[in-house]
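Exercise: predict the structure of this protein bound to adenosine-5'-triphosphate.
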Amino acid sequence: MSEVNENAAIGNSSSPNNGNSNKIKNIIGVMSGKGGVGKSTVTTLIARELNNKGYKVGILDADITGPSIPRLMNMEDIRAFSSNNSIIPVVSDEGIKMISLNFLIEDENSPVIWRGPMIGNIVQQFYNDVLWEELDYLLIDMPPGTGDVALTVMQSIPLTGIVMVSIPQNLVSMIVAKAVNMANQLKVPVIGLVQNMSYVKCPGCSEKIEIFEAPEMEAFLSEMNLELLGELPMTKEIINYSRTNDSLSEDVRGTVEAMTEKIEVFCKKNKLRMFLR
Ligand SMILES: Nc1ncnc2c1ncn2[C@@H]1O[C@H](COP(=O)(O)OP(=O)(O)OP(=O)(O)O)[C@@H](O)[C@H]1O
Ligand SMILES: [Mg+2]
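Solution:
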């Protein structure tokens, strides 16, 4: 079992609940149901875009057994610490606050061998006991699946909405449909769907090559009542952007900007809905 950093407040029952001092305006879950489709990558793309626009942004890595935010944000050597029993998040150079179990354990390669309820508790602590302070957007990078953690997040964290991530494959769509149905059953709004690895651009002629081919995507979107937030290509630049400060090409940047704007609009409308209630 993995050793948690002694300086951190994890598991400490006397740790205070920062729920009252944290002021988080919008909380976005990034989910899929399926593993390896790009949830964490899309989380970092949206977080960095929101941050570039001047918002205060945080990322909560709810993938306790397979945390990838520290590596994707190039911060794997940094450790979080605690003060007055609160967990102080790690802050990226650009100012994004982050918490992940890998910031709290000595060795990022140690496996976390815990049962579901304990993992759920950690996720709740990441929300309640981390000193997020004021945030415009908190993004929650969910683990694959529709199990314990997804349930804990949806039931105990006041999500503004969920961004679903998929790739154009029949089998994946079926699993994403489960995640959408789960959100619907728990009355958590789904903001829309990001179709990741949607195509590859031919380096010679710039033609879009659809590797997976999913002619039924339109039907899937309308059947699930999902808005398409954007289609991202399969490209090294997306992998590199996560790890470095390489800039994105114009069309990928445009897609990220457009999907982030749709998320902002959804959040603004949601605020208005809450206000008018
Ligand atoms: N658009 C893309 N083009 C190329 N590679 C990508 C793209 N999106 C993600 N990847 C790569 O695919 C792999 C999986 O991505 P990522 O870790 O974001 O998926 P995930 O859904 O969060 O996975 P998990 O379910 O394990 O948490 C990573 O190696 C990532 O760099
Ligand atoms: Mg992930």
